[in-house]
Amino acid sequence: MFDSDVSRDEVSKRMTRRMFLGGGVAVVAAGGVFWLRRSPGVEASVAVHGTPGEVVVVNFSQAGEKLGAQRVAKVVKTDGEWMRQLGKNSFEIARQADTEMPFSGVSLNEHGKGIFRCVCCETALFSSQTKFESGTGWPSFWAPIAKENVVEVTDTTLGMERTEVRCVRCEGHLGHVFNDGPQPTGLRYCMNSASMQFVKI
């Protein structure tokens, strides 16, 4: 009987230790989850994305009518503001220069008459009149709607030299341009659907 009481005491002590250790782990885990939830992510980021200043853009009406050149202020926002405006997919592509999967973009099979505008600032970028089927899996154009509305910069991120295309007003990443397009320019502006919004005329 005495041995039985000792066994019970040992079991009780072990159970108490386990409960203590288990409770401690649970508290640490709960604290970690609470910290992660409170830690600022992209949505709370105050890092500014864009360069302040002014640029000249060529404006187009919603009906596609060319309105002429105008000097405008560049669009500069924090990463948090861009994330809330664009959502995760467009933010990663337009603001972080990611690339959407081929054959996945909503603009790929868009054959209507209209203008492709920047998803970030609504600057007119491409006309449906210059869109063509490249077979690459991304919306392709042989020219921008106005050369002033885009800017081309050297991109060496993949260990090769490419020409990145950005919106001139907000510096949003659009895609890349290549020298294998159709005439009359011989260029292929290979764009991401997530960086643009199509406005029918």
CATH evolutionary superfamily of the largest domain: Peptide methionine sulfoxide reductase
Global geometry: globular
Query: What kind of sheet is the major sheet?
Result: 6 strands, antiparallel
Q: Per CATH, which architecture of the largest domain?
A: Beta Complex
Uncertain regions: pLDDT < 50 for 5+ in a row? 1-8, 11-40
Report on this model:
The protein is an alpha+beta fold. The chain has two domains: 2-39; 43-200, Peptide methionine sulfoxide reductase (Metal Binding Protein, Guanine Nucleotide Exchange Factor, Chain A). Helices cover 26% and strands 29% of the residues. The longest helix has 37 residues, at 2-38. 30% of the residues are buried. Residues 1-8 and 11-40 have low confidence and may be disordered.
